[in-house]
Please model this.
Amino acid sequence: MFNGGRQLKRARLDSSLTLRDVEHLSRILSAAYGDDRYAVRISVLSDIENHSRAPSIFRLHSLCLIYSLNMSRVLEWFGVWPKASERSTVQGYVRWRTRPTKLSCRR
Model:
């Protein structure tokens, strides 16, 4: 089980921020980006912290900026391993699945 919500709550408390503070700061970011998807409402943040609800990538971006956290590390808290994409595992799998096969001719 991943504990991303608990880790984010710890980061918020370590930053001495209230839920209301985070909502306010995320609205500032949202306005700067011109995109409401970056806003983090209090109820959503509470769900993320207490019920292990995974945030959207936009909200996660806002939280990382507000708490000064590394996005890759926070993604790992939620079970996403960004470094795995560097190993080209999917490309290797696709090459393996599409390689020519030998056909046997039995008569």
About this structure: The chain is about 60% helix and 0% strand. The domain at 4-97 is CATH 1.10.260.40 (434 Repressor (Amino-terminal Domain)).
